[in-house]
Fold:
Amino acid sequence: MSVTQQQVLDCLAKVMSPRGVALTNANVLSAVSVSDGKVFFSINVDATEARAWESVRAQAEASVRAIPGVTTAMIALTAERKAGPGAAPAPHRHAPGVPPVSSHRPPQGAPSPMARQAEIPGVAAVIAVASGKGGVGKSTTALNLALGLRDLGLRVGLLDADIYGPSVPRLTGIREKPQLNDQKKMIPLQRFGLAIMSIGFLVEEDTAMIWRGPMVMSAITQMLRDVVWGTLDVLVVDMPPGTGDAQLTLAQNVPLKGAIIISTPQDLSLIDARRGLAMFKKVNVPVLGIVENMSYFQCPHCGTRSDIFGHGGARHEAERLAVPFLGEIPLHMSIRVTSDSGTPVVESDPDGPHAQIYRAIGAKVWDQLKGVIAAA
Ligand code: ADP
Structure:
């Protein structure tokens, strides 16, 4: 028997707010999403009351999980500071169980906001793979880069935070769901020697998910912090494409040691990439470099190279903006075919030219990260 939204609401009507009001009457619930036994929603409260609400969140999660037929319950507490004199302009959210951080911007010369974000225990560096728009090969690059870093002998994880269009299940061929450990934390799936987590493991590919702004951050924070990542040298986060509010909040709230921007050589993509760069600069996340994907066309039959979109735009842009240029990846049939069949090219053709390109990019990224980790 499938779980209905009404069943979830009936259950939440029995959970009381810190002031003794039923959750369903407390005006704090986001839309409740119920799909195939998986329940997602957030409880949105004022930041000053967040601590008092944490036990309510836990209670709500436990009672929803107890509904027969519920397989996953992901309930996040999002805390916003009310607008008013002295309040910060942007809302602040925090992960369940993690104390809210001050939403005041640091004065000029103050330490980076990163310093205030709790690190992920056991994870030496979290890095973002971002793009100014969708379809430029961000996810394909994120996965192959993660494999390139693995080939350097590093312990690597991949978090698919592209919650609007999670593609990691397709790129890795993973069909299983993550299990929970005794502490009710999700155990990431293991594939190709990587620890992998994606919202796509929890919802069906064709399930339309409607994410309200605060829920985006909550879901990602939960996937970041309520997952037993173990000991990792690098956790690669495949960001949602674009440079809107959701991406900015993410860049601000995830303890990033650096970001990589994927662009194609076309002018339009480069303009978007520039926006991405500006976004990370705004939140003091170092940009480790730009990758030009679909840089040139390589004929799968004769190997001849054609610069269909022009070529070298991203390298030029990187020089102009004084950020490292990490490499060029050709537009090649084998990259598309292997990605879309769940056997990424670094894994399926480890000695081929494309795997070498991704490994070289990985090496450039790791060279910089080593310094950042040591400095931290
Ligand atoms: P994004 O994450 O930016 O939306 P994807 O990684 O999902 O993009 O890639 C979009 C499509 O382009 C996929 O079908 C993928 O296989 C293909 N693709 C990505 N990079 C390349 C490449 N270098 N050569 C050929 N196809 C590619």
Q: What stands out?
A: The radius of gyration is 21 Å. Residues 131, 134-140, 167, 241, 293-294, 329, 331-332, 335-336, 339-340 surround adenosine-5'-diphosphate (CB under 6 Å). Confidence is low (pLDDT under 50) at residues 82-116.
